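Hi all, long-time lurker, first post. I run a small reading group and we've been trying to get comfortable going from sequence to structure in the token notation. Rather than ask abstract questions, I figured I'd post a concrete chain and ask someone more experienced to write out its structure so we can walk through it together at our next meeting. Sequence below, copied exactly:
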Amino acid sequence: MKTIVSKRMSKFGFALLTMLLSSALFQVKASVDPNFHIYICFGQSNMEGNAAIGAADQTGVSSRFRVLTVAADDYSHLGRSVGNWYTAVPPLCRWDTGLTPADYFGRTLTDSLPDSVKVGVIVVAMGGSGIDAFDKDNYVEYYTNADAWQKGLMNIYGGNPYAKIIEMAKLAQQSGVIKGILLHQGESNNMQPDWPLKVQKIYNNILADLKMEPNSIPLLAGEMLRQDQGGICWGMNDIIAKLPYYVPNSYPISSQGCTGNGKDGFHFSTVGARELGKRYGLQMLSLMKSYHTVEGQTVDHLEIGNTKFTMLTGTIKRVPLNAVYSDGHKQDINFRATYSLDNAEAVKITNGFIQTMKDGVATVTASYKGALGEMKQTTFSVTATTFPLTNELFNPNIFSTGSFDETTRTLKTGQWGFGGWQYEGINLSEYKYIVAQLGSSNNSDVTFNIFDENNYWGSSASYKFADNSKIIVNLATAKKTGGTPFDPSHVYIAGFWSNGSNPFIIDKVYLAKTDAELTSIREVLDKDEYSNEKVDVYSITGILTRTQVERKTATDQLPNGVYVLKSGRKTDKVLHTQQSVNR
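-- Answer (accepted) --
Happy to help. Here is the structure in token form:
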């Protein structure tokens, strides 16, 4: 009898425990306020708060704008306990920090959202920190190699800033909803092309560890201080601009016009930090805006900024694609659209970014289905070229200040200057030749140079035009200064050097895979009104091969190769092949 009662009591106790646990879980879920919007903010010194806090920054802060205390020392200085929410009067990151973009991000949101919505921020940031300090795997190596100052900052967060972000975010999820991530970091990773990949990993890990759907919340990434504001890491902004290629739901925040502090090349002033924070807020508000009318949900057509794109081969560019709705408003649908194209070898599109793989032309169709099921499409073309002669893509200032006119294709370099193209290690191994041709006299000692390292002051393969209008670079046999073989598998710079004394016209520069793609000697001679002119023929090394023969048959029966033809009128460098004479 006792055994039966004991078993019944055991079952009753288990059922009661289950009911109590379920009730507790329900209460936790019930306490989550869907109108409490929470944002994770991380990065280095600008996000930490380098700008001075003004008197105006500590007044007028809405009680709907909250900050979650992360650092233990805040209690003795600010009376704030770790894990508790407080009105977001600065400083937000730690007691000894300044104004951060998160300040005016939150103010902008609370000023614009309904009174029923609260905004909370979790700020984990450290001055001078590289992006690896926030990586859940790489932080160990980063900590090991860090100096004492950096280790001290990491120790505030238990030596593992990423783990602290996750700990605080999970706590925040008990009272609200994570709506986005704010990032300002990059000074310590300036010009490192793998930065977007590292950010992608951190973003994906945060969402996974918080049990959120991939790509479900926006990542807002602020630019570095601009050059005209005294910034020295402004070049990093080009890398930040590529972040949406790796994280589709990410948005670079412009720092244009945001003033620096005038003391160093890294930090924004108080005014600059306020403005940057507002821009984070305005971007977030634009993503939150919803439309409930039929007209506001019906896509009328797709709008693209340009129907013909010319791009440097080996680069990426964001597709500027909007859906225009019947009520007139527009929505950026760049990564939400689908894309089909007819030349996948030359061009591919990933996450709304065009990537040019090799020279060629592709026609692209962008398609988007609206919320009410309507399908809309638009078509555009992409031309990928290694040597575009356009003002946008030709840089006359690679060294010294020059000028280029795309209408006449006229380049005037600065003194001893260089103009041309810069790449990210483009692979030209599948091509046999580069052909560069001038469209005017060479009165500036012009040469065509190509570099297989990302350093203008490094060794290059250099070709003097001298009295010739055309040079032909054999990529398989090209040699750099000093005789080192040129490596066409990673080309970084190509273009024209001159002494800068006179402008000159660039007729064309192009790639060729075979001899047949080059203008043959017979084609040149058939068009030459001086085809009967007497010339001397020299090998490319300067050895006299024939004297006073007619130009039109000057290289007949000679071995294939490049020859120099000289007359009293001009000097030409020409390529001779058997195909040239066996028509």
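A couple of things your group might point at:
The longest helix spans residues 2-30.
Residues 1-12, 14-29, 520-529, 578-583 have pLDDT under 50 and may be disordered.
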